[in-house]
Amino acid sequence: MYSRGEGVILNEPTVIAVNSRTNEVLAVGDEAWQMIGRTPGYIVAARPLRGGAITDYEITERLIRVLFRRAGVSRFSRTRVIICVPSAITHVEQRAVLEAARRAGSAQTFLIEQPVAAAIGASLPIHEPLGNMVVDVGGGTSEVAVISLGGVVALEAVRVGGFDMDAAIQAYVRDKHGVAIGERTAEEIKLAIGSALANPDQYKAEVRGRDLSTGAAKVIVLDPEEVREALDEPVRAILEIIVRALGRTSPELSQDLIHRGMHLVGGGGLLRGMDRRISKETALPVQLVDAPLECVVHGAGRCLENVDGLREMFLDRPRS
Predict the structure, then answer these.
(1) Pairing state of beta strands 132-137 and 142-148?
(2) What is the gyration radius of the CA atoms in the chain, in angstroms?
(3) Which of 126, 208, 209, 275 could be disulfide-bonded to 286 (CB atoms 3.0-4.6 Å)?
(4) CA 233 – CA 106 distance, rounded (Å)
């Protein structure tokens, strides 16, 4: 969360824990993330957003209300809110986001596409007649946008991201080793030894899980090559949309990209060798931006500081 005049005031996972018996919100963010896979049946710790879309409308609304309360927003304050959304979002999903924000206490809500916000956050010259290419690998979606003169001239998106990488690791360990591991463990494996391209300083990781045949606890050792194999499918899906976006870019802007390259943002961009893998597949330079995790929210923050000047960057409100 970014607050006007203050900067980033909250940076935590989009997870909420709810007591299904009392309907009470028990935790949000880091505290709730620690509960995933560790709660009794009546406590649900879940991500209400999947694939860039709201999977549980009521829980999402409650999450936004808790976040607003942390930021000092109430139903009586006339608060303007900017929410970053995937470029692949449908009109129905847009309305769901707008309605959730309104019911949580927002007086006026604007939506901005994540790759556009990322370009603003990366301080790219998007209002100049130059090709600016942004690759945003998020948790639920990955998006590629070529921006020039303040508008998107080529856009591709796929509902594949960091969460799908975690799921791919879970599936690989289950199928190849007969061991069940949790979502949090899979993410830890990805961060520890995951990669998109081989690198010299590789090491193995010890993984603890449940043996599917006996039900007992079991320890296995994973090689970086195995994790790279597990991640290959989601990584290839991301590479495909990059190639498609390049194919839709005009020759003039393509010339700019040869010199300027593309800018990699999002948590998925931190996967080891992701920038080198993209560069190898496209023959273009790839630069991982500073603070790739916060780049999108910083871009939205700049829009918040200058709503009237950057209003043309917002999505048109869907018609009823």
Answers:
(1) antiparallel
(2) 20
(3) 275
(4) 39
Nearest residue to 146 via CA among 135, 138, 137: 135
Helix count and strand count (H, E) for the chain: 10, 17
**Residues 6 or more apart from 161 whose CB is under 8 A from it?**
137, 138, 139, 140, 141, 142, 234, 266, 268
- The pTM of the full predicted model, rounded to 2 decimals, is 0.86
Specify the residue for token string 């999947």.
50
How far is Cα 146 from Cα 253, in angstroms, rounded to an integer? 9
| Chain centre to alpha carbon of residue 6 | 23
* Enclosing H/E stretch for 281: helix 274-282
- Measured from the Cβ of residue 230, the count of other Cβ atoms closer than 10 Å reads 26
Q: What are residue 307's DSSP bridge partners?
A: none
Spatial distance between the Cα atoms of 301 and 293, rounded to a whole number of angstroms: 14
Residue 139 scores a pLDDT above 90: no
Closest CA to 107 of 79, 74, 84, 66: 79
Spatial CA neighbour of 86 closest among 131, 123, 51, 57? 51
